[in-house]
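queue> holo job accepted (SN-glycerol-3-phosphate)
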Amino acid sequence: QTEIRIVSGQERQNGAVLVDIFKRFNAGQNRVLVDLELDNRSDLDTTQKVLADIVAGTTPDAVRITGAVLRSYIDSGRAQPLDACLASAPKLAAQLDTGLLDGFRVNGTLYAMPWYVTLPALFINADAFRAAGLDPESPPATWSELEAAAAALSNGSGDRYGLLMYMPNTYMFEGQLASSGGAMVGPDGQSGVAGPAAVDQMAFMRRLVKDKRMPALSQAVFWGEAARLFQAGEVAMLLTSSSSYNSLTANVNFDVALAPMPAQDGHDPITMASGNGFVMLATDPARQEATCSALLSLITPESVAATVRATASSPLNVAAAEIPELLGDFYAKNRKLVVINSQMSRPWYTLPGRANNEFQSNFGDIQHEILTGATSPQDGLNRLAALMNELNAGQ
Amino acid sequence: MTTHAGETRSRIMQAGIHIALAAGAVFMLLPFWLMLRTSFTAPDQIFSGNVLTLTHFSLDNYARVFAEVPLLRYYLNGFVVVGTIFLGQVVICVPAAYALSRLRFAGRELGLWIVLAAMMVPYHATAIPIYVLLSQFGLINTHGALILPFIGSAFSVFLLRQFFLSIPQSVFESARLDGASPYRILIHIVFPMARPAIITFGILSFVSHWNDYFWPSFVLRNDFAATVPFGIVRFLDQELGADYGPQMAAATLTVLPLLIGFLIAQRQLIAGIAMSSGQVD
Amino acid sequence: MTVHPLATRIGAPTPVAVHNLAKSWPGAQRPVFSELDIDCPAGGITIIVGPSGCGKTTFLRCLCGLDVPTKGEIRFGDQDVTRIDAQHRGVAMVFQNYALYPTKTAFDNIAFPLRMARVGAAETADRVRAAAALTRIEGLLERLPSQLSGGQRQRVGIARAIVRGPSVLLMDEPLSNLDTKLRVEMRAELSALQRELGATTVYVTHDQTEALALADHLIVMRDGKIEQQGAPEEIFRHPADVFVADFLGSMNLLAVRREGEGMVLADGTRVSSLPGAPSSGSFQLGFRAEDAHIGGLAGDRATLPAMVRRSELMGSERLVHLHCGGVALRARLKQAVAPGEHIDLHVHASALHYFSDDGQRAGAVA
Amino acid sequence: MTVHPLATRIGAPTPVAVHNLAKSWPGAQRPVFSELDIDCPAGGITIIVGPSGCGKTTFLRCLCGLDVPTKGEIRFGDQDVTRIDAQHRGVAMVFQNYALYPTKTAFDNIAFPLRMARVGAAETADRVRAAAALTRIEGLLERLPSQLSGGQRQRVGIARAIVRGPSVLLMDEPLSNLDTKLRVEMRAELSALQRELGATTVYVTHDQTEALALADHLIVMRDGKIEQQGAPEEIFRHPADVFVADFLGSMNLLAVRREGEGMVLADGTRVSSLPGAPSSGSFQLGFRAEDAHIGGLAGDRATLPAMVRRSELMGSERLVHLHCGGVALRARLKQAVAPGEHIDLHVHASALHYFSDDGQRAGAVA
Amino acid sequence: MSVSPASVLRPITMPRVGFAPLVAPYVLVAPLLGLIFIFAILPAALALFLTFFETDILAGTMRFVGTANFARAADRGNVLNSLRVTFLYTVLTVPPSMILGLSIALAINGLRRGRMFWQAVYFLPVAATLVAMSIVWRWMFVGRKGIIDQTFGQAIGLTDWLNSPVLSLPAVAIVGNWQQIGFVVILYLAALTAVPRHLLEAARVDGAGAWSRFWHVTWPSIGPTTVFVGIITSVDALRVFDTISTMTGGGPSRSSQTLAHLMWERGIYFFDIGGGSVVTLVLLALALAATAVQRLLTARLERAGTR
Ligand SMILES: Nc1ncnc2c1ncn2[C@@H]1O[C@H](COP(=O)(O)OP(=O)(O)OP(=O)(O)O)[C@@H](O)[C@H]1O
Ligand SMILES: Nc1ncnc2c1ncn2[C@@H]1O[C@H](COP(=O)(O)OP(=O)(O)OP(=O)(O)O)[C@@H](O)[C@H]1O
Ligand SMILES: O=P(O)(O)OC[C@H](O)CO
Ligand SMILES: [Mg+2]
Ligand SMILES: [Mg+2]
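queue> job finished
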């Protein structure tokens, strides 16, 4: 029996379901035993540990990652291709949503066994909507509607805001940018983050902040505050990842409605898909095979169904959504989620090599400076673009 | 009469000091009150109403902590880890501090410098090499990883050395003349005398390792050897924000044994430090 | 079991001798002492007196091995122990500041050297009790040092030093913290005890009374030099110089000039002359307070006119402070005198000491 | 003659008196002292002697205001100062353990009370120099206390106390750490200085020599009670009880029975009888070491057969330890005697003291 | 008559002891120095070694790059900024902790009753779990709804601390003070109990008032403790990480990024081991300087014989 070690962070978000999946896997055969290590912190901390493991020579066989760090694993040559693995289970492979699957490929090679994919959604405090004379059933779809609704929902004194539509990373930014016709990387291979679409977006958000329609949160307090503001009824619309669905709806005493991400007037929304998959680090063929078999158990219809129920993510395995006893009735009961899953999406861009974190962190800082008016949108984004080019060149 | 005037004035002074201390105590205790208040408030009430008052008393958060976190195991681990570190420090640091303060030998000044420099090295700076070392010995995920790096505590040596310097050299010389070897001096004279100082650094060592989160989170991958702060972090998620209720309940449960311990050992602590920093009668 | 050579003393006490001993502290300009040659009589008490800071404690520390001399050798019997570690020298020492173990009871403090020598429990108890009895602390054995008064602590220190019957016993001002009555008593006890134990004892004090009372061999030190050594009586009677004369028994000293047959003090006061006085032009005249008298005195004598400044009662006598030719003198008199009174002091010729101008003994007492 | 720079107090010296003073420590079973009535003569020296722990220091602390008495009143002149804080009483004190400020030089230590009183720089320097001269530490003014020997520290402490010319000066064993020679000299200086300053002085010591030498008014304390107070000469000559007799001048005491005309010691040794001895069946006989003689003595006298145990040189005399009828005695003799020798001790009738069995004075010295 | 003491106290033989006195000091310090070598010196040396390499842990490669890491650190590394922030943080924590700690200790020391109670109250934060407490503090500092903004912040017109490049560092410093004041109080209380009582009394008799007594007696005698506290708090300021990481993440815009945080960010978060090592080097240099200062100061105090 081969024992393989799989590491995953974000225990609160999806740990329980992962435990279930591998428990079933372990029970279902006796060639491979999965030793799952969960850790309840960000993926960043998980990566830090994996780094230490690599140095120490105790590299795990697979590690769950998000798109944000996928490139680091690939570009360093650590991540092992998984095309052959997936091909070894043709039936399952056929059931996968090819669009979502693309998010896990780089230059045509599959580097992570997909597990789930989340898209953004506009979380709406339906009670507040009604109180402000708005209809949660017809949520804002464009920036101008968004701004109008935010104006109606905020009291302008900084106690109640209408909206929170950014993140301290490029997840939301890139979605808006793509929707407005921009791109992170221009056709010339240079950074596109200082283009007019990006500047427009930042200027729009700065206006919302200035008018007290939207709070400006710094990176460190962002995640806790964003959730708290929404749950406490201080922000009526929260544009965030749908993976927050369960936790955001659990601890509130008001109705939550969901809507697709709004886009700039005159454009169709394009959202970023945040992939959650497993990178294989094992290099020994026998271990690779064992790891492969374990990872394949993640994408069975049953597993995907369980995952979707737990995380409100998009179903990777199309079969799962179609089989009534798996997800069919889930979507019947949670119609809101259908709305989210029907958004157009693209994989979330990350910088190559080891540069993404540094870029993301600088993005968060610069965005905060722009939102608080410490720097102008154009200046800030120019700085960001310069850094991005430098980082890309350095890899 | 003068008596009365004097008495009254000193009474007013005393009352004034108490009031000033109470005002400062608000600052010191407010976070604790928020912690307690949050831990006793039902999850959906935490952000509503006045955050300073406790209106919706509930034990749900504690129930969740006990349900979701193997707190007893953490306590046990905590005591094992902290206790072993303390014993190790006593065994390693007391002799070294004695030698560095009261024995003459070539290289003593160099040894002192090494100890002091080690006390200053920020331990995040050396985390990865230490990790590699521990893993070479298969210690990752074990109690050993939480214990070994802290046994050679430069801080304890520093504190103990201050203490030994305050003991007249003639006491040690006298023991030499009485025919005791350095080892027997250590056992018969130094250890009994160092008791107050040992208690002092014991409390400080206990507090810092009981509460340490960085290191356990770095070298542990599962609950096997996890200490109590793990229980708190269980309810913290970088991307979703914190689950404040249970988290604060866990924090309360973490601090509790320390507080009880401190209240018991308080008198000794002061006495020990008093000796480390100066006069012995 | 191997027996330590130093501990095999059977019967004969160990003589202690130092030869050409010097000690300098690193960085100090001058040595604490140098070229010290001392022979401590075996089984006797050698007393070192001298003003504060003259190197007494340092010398003791070299003897017991706590400090290493810079030069010279230390011999216990036939053995050169100069480089032997303190722990092996088998000497016992009573420290100036007691140096008791604060966490041990008086009993355990006293028993410590025995424990270190792995002496059995019964013998330990016997010895501790004997040492405690000698130092009169039988009732205090269960107390911690912090519960004892200064004098009691000192006695515990002495008991600890004598409990193993050391062949060499060093004491650094062991009685300085006792009151006069107890000091006199303890002094007698210590002396009796020392004779009985036969330990070669080196005893440091700055109290000349104690020094004269106890010494078999007396050493007067000053700034790391030996001013005089020998039998105490001899030193007292024939001090080698004014320092010794003054330090032991505070001699009155007057600078005098010869003038014809007589002697004249600095301010011109005449002093009746005497046979035996040096013939040099100027010298110093010394006599002790107890050798001055008023009223009839037969035989050769010097007479000094003096004025009474103050009189102190000293038991049955008086210590009278006088002025004579601008110099302050002291006399121990039976008679009561009033301040302001003018009297003639008589000193018997045999009680007069003469020193040259540079302080060396010049004439002999008859 | 110029006025001493330290003696700048104007007006008559302040008498210090305590009435019915008592002090108990909280929790202690018995008070340290109670019902103390003392009148310290204005401008004179009152000396308190007594064994360790009898309450001397505590009494001084009440006088200077560091401790508050439990009962009774303290008066400086006409003023009741019982409740006035130490800071404002204007008394100066020399502490038993020096209490020098370790981070200040000797100069700054001495100048401290002047600085606190905002005395100008020039006057401060003058006064400090005068006080230093009196205590003979002129050369040490730049040193820190840690660089001074024990005796030098004590002198700095004295200088600090006298520097502001206090009207009330308290000294707690100010000379205990000096060597005999210096002690005798300092004692004289202190006494002269005190007369010049005219400060009412209360002086604590456990050295009876010092007590007799300095006191204008002497108080013998024991366990918080006054055993006897009065002129020192009077107390020395007529000790009220055996405690005083023993403590001041360590009197030899012998329990005797009348037997017919003679007196018999406990072991049956006969002592020649004398007129003036009490007629009661048993009592105690006392005499001082310096009143014992061997050889011819005219007039009424007691004769005691004794055996020499040990002889200590004490300058020109010897302190001889003797055995007489199972009791240890001391005699100060001029003659040299050998241990083991049997001698007859003679004591003049006028030097004999009689005490009843319970220790009270029974017969008077003629 | 009883037995003569001398017959009881006859000489005893002393057992022979080997070379113990010569080797003992080394035997006693060896375990400690061994552990320190393994767990502090060696890793620190390694960190220094790595400054000259570009290390990619994921790829497992190491490339000698000379001083390139230093150049990058100077250029993009924000080392200067972090030096400034660290210095500022030191200024914001060391003197206030010491002054407040001493004042509180003096106040408690002057009490007739209730000393134990107040001691415990002020020590409480020392015993608290910092991970949990910094979350509480972050929450207290949150803009508008946080307690700070609602009370004190509004009163003095300083709000939304954590989002402000000016106030975020003071916010962390407040927590730093809160955490360590109790420790300082305890250290000073201990020192105050050791102030020789007779000196205070002597000063009283010499006519010194409360302030003079403090300045001339108490302050000099707690000198060694002051040095000790200064060193300890400075070292803590050099290493501060946990509160910064949970409360501000070094932001906004690096306004609260101390050296320790920068070291972590570059070395671990940005996968830039070489760049992180450069920061480590700076930190170690500061630590060594602090060691030297401490050694000089205390060596002088030890010699001055204040004890
Ligand atoms: N460790 C040391 N380093 C440098 N000098 C020292 C040291 N110990 C003592 N001394 C100096 O050596 C000299 C002799 O000191 P020592 O202690 O022997 O004097 P002492 O005769 O015992 O005096 P006292 O009667 O005051 O005890 C003094 O001047 C002293 O300052
Ligand atoms: N603070 C205190 N609390 C309780 N008892 C005390 C205190 N200070 C002194 N005493 C007790 O009061 C008694 C008198 O002490 P005091 O210091 O006055 O003695 P002393 O006559 O000065 O003795 P010595 O000659 O040894 O200095 C002693 O029995 C002592 O134990
Ligand atoms: O948690 P995920 O995978 O939905 O990630 C999307 C994040 O919110 C982007 O940081
Ligand atoms: Mg000495
Ligand atoms: Mg006293």
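queue> The interface with chain C takes residues 168, 170-171, 173-181, 184, 188-189, 192-193, 195, 280-281 of chain B (CB under 8 Å).
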